[in-house]
Specification:
With about 100 residues, the protein is mostly helical. It has one domain. The protein is built from three helices and two strands, in the order αββαα. It is elongated. The model has no long low-confidence stretch (mean pLDDT about 85).
């Protein structure tokens, strides 16, 4: 009887641990919205929540490297730079043939 109780408790702890890792992974290792790299949380200078989603789509994060190289200080700067980057990519893809 005590063995099955300990076994059930251990299984419950393992399930809780795995669930916790799955839920908090996007918060501990966010993806940079500008360069797309996944890094540790301490490598980001801008990190905001945009929705209640538990995945990486609920956060906007910019790493320190991109903030320094692209002179991004706010999330609105990020949106402007991403739009400019996408327009330049589109124009160079379809006009330089």
């Amino acid at each position: 009887m005590p063995y099955t109780l300990i076994k059930n408790f251990a299984e419950l702890l393992i399930i809780i641990f795995i669930t916790t890792i799955i839920v908090y992974t996007p918060e501990l290792f966010p993806r940079c919205a500008f360069c797309g790299h996944t890094k540790a949380r301490w490598a980001f200078s801008l990190h905001t929540h945009t929705s209640l989603s538990l995945s990486r789509t609920g956060n906007k994060s910019v790493c320190k490297k991109c903030c320094f190289n692209e002179n991004i200080t706010t999330i609105s700067d990020l949106d402007k730079k991403k739009e400019i980057k996408s327009r330049v990519k589109y124009k160079t893809k379809y006009t330089l043939r």
